[in-house]
Amino acid sequence: MKKLFMYTLLTFSLSSLNGCYWENFSKTERVEPLRLTAPNSIETLIDEVKSATQNGHRIRMTGSGHSHSDVAITEDILLRPIQLIAVLEIDRQRLNNPEEDQLVRVDSGITVRKLDTYLDSQGLALPNMGGYDGQTIVGATATGTHGSGLAHGPMASQIVSLQIVVDDGRVLQIEPNKGITNPDKFPGVLEENTGIDVELIQNDSLFNATKISIGSMGIVYSVVLKTDRKFWLEEIRTLSTWEEVKAPDGFLDRLINGLPLDDGDVQPEYYELQYNP
Q1: Contact residues for 96 (Cβ-Cβ < 8 A; gap 6+)
Q2: Angle at CA of residue 241, ends 239 and 243, nearest 5°
Q3: What pLDDT score does 156 carry?
């Protein structure tokens, strides 16, 4: 069991395909692109990128719009991943360890909520996530969504492999130097369509740049995630006074001096102090 002190603030995404314009969930950004569409397959995604390249247009794909900025939008060709939401097969014969059973491959547009539901049915879970689950998995990771807990990295740290479509519709599979794929067993084609060539690139710098690229490195088609075994969270809320919190050996004193925050054996992975004057 993982122990934490926490609260969750829920917000709701209102972005959708609305005529010929798109706006984010908070309505701080609105754009009317030349073309607004939602590819339903890798084939249509490749066609869109090829067309944009040939016509000299910028092309971006934005997720649930759970951002207050314009980093992931364009006035040229704007794609939505709302039809790229499937859990995909993993060709385990390509892997260095075919017996690895905590890897999950999904379309880039699957929401964290839908992914969580699937993982739960498999006895698995994301090791860490943010306070909202309506984001697309790649929208969340590409923008650096971090979640909580000092012992955990951002959500992007759970990605071990990405398949992206770049200029002229080329498909790349990007992994770290010692990635999950065995180069000697990699057939150079896409799992779902062997007629589509895929170039495997295992490079730490390129992999790290692509994971949190705000969509600037290409259009992500799919990702492989390293998941955790299913676990429970225990939330503990404690009502106290300011005098107790700031007292010697109190919460703030322990926090500032790096001392255990709890007298028990299991320390909280996340803590929060809410002060009401």
Answers
A1: 179, 180, 181, 182
A2: 150
A3: 96
Share of residues in the chain with pLDDT > 70 (%):
93
CA gap 31, 74 in Å, rounded: 7
Phi-psi region of 72 (alpha: psi -120 to 50; beta: other; left: phi over 0): alpha
- Domains of the chain, CATH where assigned: 2-79 (3.30.43), 87-229 (3.30.465.10), 240-277 (no CATH)
> Average pLDDT of 246-258?
90
- Rounded to an integer, what distance in angstroms lies between the CA atom of residue 272 and that of residue 237? 9
CA–CA separation, 7 vs 95, rounded Å? 39
Chain position carrying tokens 């012992």: 151
* Tokens found for residue 62: 């934005």
Q: State how far the Cα of 129 lies from the Cα of 59, in Å rounded to an integer.
A: 28
pLDDT for residue 6: 35
Q: Is the pLDDT of residue 11 over 50?
A: no
Give the phi and the psi of residue 224 in degrees, each rounded to 5: -110, 130
Bridge partner list, 164: 172, 220
Rg (CA), the chain: 21
Contacts of residue 257, Cβ cutoff 8 Å, sequence gap at least 6: none
Phi, psi (deg, nearest 5) at residue 267: -90, 150
pTM above threshold 0.70: yes
For residues 144 and 158, what is the distance between their CA atoms, to the nearest angstrom?
12
Look at residue 210 and give its three-state secondary structure. helix
